[in-house]
Amino acid sequence: MKNIVLLGPPGAGKGTQARRLVEGRGMVQLSTGDMLRDAQKSGTEMGRKVADVMARGDLVTDEIVIGLVDERMRAGSPGGFIFDGFPRTLAQADALGALLGRTGRKLDAVIEMRVDDDALVRRISGRFSCRSCGEVYHDDTKPTSKPGICDKCGSSDLFRRPDDNAESLKTRLMEYYKKTSPLIGYYYALGDLFSIDGLAEIDDVAKSIEAILDESPAA
Ligand code: AP5
């Protein structure tokens, strides 16, 4: 069983790679972005509270996010967890260590996906997703085979995220550099950090991640 963090700015490819690991290795993807969007869809009080924050591109409070992760981790995952978009602050990183420690687990690897800012803007501005199965596409690098139809589940309900606009992206990048990028040093100091080239082709990025997973000893 492996527990890993995919760490990177918006558009680095965290979700794309996490979904491949779920299919290939039976790991559980724990995406705080998806969990917060689900809370918005289901109309909970918390979902309403975070909607504006997310649309602006600001970070949701540590308390809310850590609470969601705690709840989800209690359901367990025999194949291990892929933390996608969590932790994003030093407080969240400390909390993750404590949550894993509760069940005698630890992180096996924190994989930093390095992508330059120009590429992030191109990726975010061309992204669209399937509302039915969650598959993520891109106008240029990963279009659907048939226009308007999801390759994976056949749904025609494809959409673009409301925070994928120039103004929110600027805020999301600032939040990443101010609050999340210090985690690179944090995990380096703990000896958990691996850095990979997130600019490579999707298949090649996947191979780099697989190599790290196969090398790092199981928890
Ligand atoms: P979240 O949903 O986590 O968004 P994000 O971190 O901004 O990351 P993205 O989902 O935008 O990008 P990704 O790295 O998954 O890239 P993807 O694989 O889709 O968070 C949204 C909001 O929720 C936050 O702004 C915040 O408000 C809140 N939030 C979430 N977690 C929080 C937390 N822990 N604390 C506080 N607040 C939190 O790929 C992008 C595009 O590029 C796709 O079109 C894809 O097809 C394409 N692509 C992927 N890989 C490649 C490649 N190798 N080559 C070419 N194209 C590629």
Describe the 3D structure.
This protein is of the alpha/beta class and 219 residues long. It has 9 helices and 8 strands. It has helices at residues 14-25, 32-41, 45-56, 62-74, 90-102, 117-125, 166-180, 182-190, 202-215, and strands spanning 4-7, 28-31, 81-84, 109-114, 127-130, 136-138, 158-159, 193-197. The strands form 2 sheets. It has a 5-stranded parallel beta sheet with strand order 2-3-1-4-8, with helices on both faces. A hairpin with a 5-residue loop joins strand 5 and strand 6. Helix 2 (32-41) crosses helix 3. The longest helix has 15 residues, at 166-180. The chain is globular and about 45 Å long. The mean pLDDT is 94. It binds BIS(adenosine)-5'-pentaphosphate.
Which regions contain 5 or more consecutive residues with pLDDT less than 50? none
Strand content: 5-15%
- Going across the biggest sheet, name each strand in turn: 2-3-1-4-8
Tell me, rounded to a whole number, the average pLDDT: 94
Ligand names:
BIS(adenosine)-5'-pentaphosphate
Q: What would you report as the Rg, rounded to the nearest angstrom?
A: 17 Å
**Number of alpha- plus pi-helical segments:** 9
